[in-house]
Amino acid sequence: MWSSWRGKDNPATPWIEYRWAAPVTLNGSRIRFFADQPAGAGEGVAPPASWRLEYWDGGWKPVRGAGPYGTSADKWQTVAFPRVTTRCLRAQFVASKGAGVGVQEWEALAPQATVPPPAPKTAAPPCDRP
Fold first, then answer.
1. Distance (Å, rounded) from C-alpha 129 to C-alpha 69?
2. What are the pLDDT tens digits along the chain (130 aa)?
3. pTM of the predicted model, to two decimals?
């Protein structure tokens, strides 16, 4: 669970990211928003006005062909896209009139299931480092 809510000073365009130690191939993502206020509310935690996926390829780039980007709370919003190979995936949000954005769960989806490698002993480096 993650939220950008900070009281009166909520960021207008918060984001969350996945980082992997080695590149992965993805073809979808799904996210579940939580909210204590309705869409369009200017307080509390509301569904985002909009959002999009970006991947790292020498800089943040929009995931082409992705969509649709649903924003309803309390249900999965699934986004499909052509395969992308990257080490970092980011969900970028546009908050609703100053409200915080809340994510209950977020998943990155691969075209084929694989056994994940053992957890690294250190965090994956920032996206702008190989």
1. 29
2. 899 998 888 999 999 999 998 899 999 999 999 999 999 998 999 999 999 999 999 999 999 999 999 999 999 999 999 999 999 999 999 999 889 999 999 999 999 988 877 877 888 889 887 6
3. 0.91
Q: Which residue has the tokens 């949000």?
A: 93
Are 26 and 91 in contact by the 8 Å Cβ rule? The answer is: no
How far, in whole angstroms, is CA 42 from its chain's centroid?
21
Q: How many residues does the chain have?
A: 130
**Cα angle value 77/83/84 (rounded, 5°):** 95
Angle formed at CA 93 by CA 30 and CA 58, multiple of 5 degrees? 85
- Under 8 Å between Cβ of 79 and 53: yes
